[in-house]
Design goal:
The chain is built from 15 helices and 19 strands. The chain has 483 residues and is an alpha+beta fold. A hairpin with a 2-residue loop joins strand 10 and strand 11.
């Protein structure tokens, strides 16, 4: 936990703004100075968009929202007339190609899906993101490269619709097929016959698909693939990614250098996804160990974060640290750090530590006196505890069911998803809320919750207000004719 506390205490956004101009984020730097000669990439601006959204979710600073607009504007401008994305742009704002790689396409969908789903984003930003996703959708089924498929799957996982559910399963089935073909050798449990870059995104995508679909084969392959790469990258007392100078070819030696910051970020995110899908605390511990790589728990025992500039050095080479501080490095560092410290994680840990919901999270049971389930057409709720001005419930929504569109005049509510994924409407905003994530419903605001998945949706609801009676409800639309 030490490196996490250090991130919170010492995070400096100066290099983010240094690397960003009125077009977007520069791709590379010469030491800590933006390298205009190398221009920009849509890859980097897509990831920077996620970073900026996460920063705004955490601190609500207008400067971070301005970054969101800038990076989103870059991604939207990069989309061509057929819905794909150009990647490399010169400093003169000219794209170098008609169409970028499938990796770039997938990362754009990841960024657009995350931005659309964020409850902190204004409606205009969400609408622009959703429009770009819709323009991109016709291209998803033609994706052939595994990383493009994986990132596209992760991005689509933030959006709920039957069409997207089908695409997610098609992408996941393709990844499973690749894994089963390549892993016939029991000593090589991986999706390709080599391990190169951005590796952990492949099992991460299948954890995402499992959470959405409940299909056990996705969980099985995600676990097997992640365990295989963990057996190599955690072979020492610290995280040691595959080196990019030669990679790791099947039946060949593992390259030790250069170690890239991207790998620490992606591997941390994959383990967070594993933790959210399985509840296995060891996955969260490994995610934190990945992040500690930035702080010096690595093969050089040196930190990669420059305390003067706030930038992240570009990797570990055989003869020392790469002193350049490019976009991919700082963006990956910030995304991983925020993913491990975001408020929703704090809420989950706080509830766990309180002892009130420990039995529910670990055993599916609770031990309070107010434990009689109340059944409704959509599922059930159980009051776990109450006192004046406060009430806590466990809510179970059956697969495919939806609560009424409603509001309460005398209370606000907090919803913490502890199992499954929820489609949540708050006011005019509709988003997916995944396991271990939390949303706030203000007093007198219309809201509803739906379970679009194939597994029961489990929620802890905390009510606050002067009056908490069940009759404080106004229904506007209801599947069961109660409005």
């Amino acid at each position: 936990m030490g490196s996490m506390n250090k991130f919170i205490d010492t995070f400096d956004d100066a290099h983010i703004f240094r690397m960003t101009d009125d077009t977007g984020m520069f791709q590379h730097s010469l030491f800590s100075v933006p390298n205009r000669l190398e221009g920009y990439t849509t890859d980097d601006n897509a990831r920077a968009l996620i970073m900026a959204v996460m920063l705004y979710e955490q601190e609500q600073k207008p400067a971070y929202l301005a970054l969101v607009t800038r990076y989103l504007g870059f991604v939207l401008h990069a989309q061509n007339e057929v819905g794909r994305f150009r990647n490399f742009m010169t400093y003169g704002r000219d794209f170098k190609e008609i169409e970028g790689s499938e990796d770039c396409f997938g990362r754009c969908l990841w960024a657009l899906g995350y931005t659309y789903a964020s409850l902190s984003m204004p409606s205009g930003i969400k609408d622009a993101s959703f429009g770009a996703v819709n323009r991109a959708l016709p291209n998803v089924q033609s994706l052939a490269w595994v990383r493009g498929q994986a990132y596209a799957l992760i991005g689509l996982g933030f959006i709920s619709s039957p069409v997207i559910d089908t695409l997610i399963c098609e992408l996941a089935d393709s990844l499973v097929g690749r894994f089963e073909h390549e892993s016939e050798d029991k000593e090589w449990q991986w999706f390709e016959d080599n391990i190169t870059y951005d590796n952990a995104v492949l099992p991460w995508a299948l954890f995402s698909a499992y959470k959405r679909s409940g299909q056990e084969q996705y969980l099985r392959v995600a676990r097997e693939g992640l365990a295989f790469i963990d057996s190599v990258t955690f072979r020492d007392e610290y995280f040691h990614p595959i080196g990019c100078n030669g990679w790791w070819m099947h039946d060949a030696e593992i390259s030790q250098y250069d170690e890239q910051p991207l790998e620490a970020c992606t591997t941390a995110l994959a383990h967070i996804a594993a933790y959210e899908a399985t509840g296995d605390d060891s996955m969260l511990a490994l995610a934190r160990q990945c992040f500690a790589w930035y702080a010096g728990e690595n093969s050089r025992h040196e930190g990669l974060i420059d305390p003067v500039t706030g930038g992240c050095r570009d990797g570990i080479m055989v003869n020392g640290l790469n002193q350049n501080q490019g976009a991919e490095s700082i963006v990956g560092y910030v995304i991983a750090g925020l993913a491990l410290t975001k408020p929703t994680s704090t809420v989950v840990e706080g509830l766990k530590n309180s002892g009130i919901v420990t039995d529910i999270l670990e055993n599916g049971q609770q031990k309070t006196d107010e434990n009689t389930p109340v059944y409704r057409p959509w599922g059930s709720y159980t009051v776990m505890g109450s006192e004046p001005g406060f009430k806590m419930k466990k809510i179970v929504v059956n697969p495919g069911e939806v609560l009424s569109l409603q509001l309460h005049y005398h209370r606000s509510e907090h919803w913490l998803v502890i199992g499954g994924a929820a489609k949540v409407t708050i006011g005019e905003i509709e988003s997916m809320v995944n396991e271990n994530e939390h949303v706030f419903i203000p007093q007198a605001v219309k809201h509803r919750i739906e379970n679009p998945g194939q597994l029961p949706l489990k929620i802890i609801e905390v009510q606050n207000g002067r009056y908490l009676g069940e009759d404080d409800i106004v229904r506007f639309a209801d599947k069961y004719g109660r409005a």
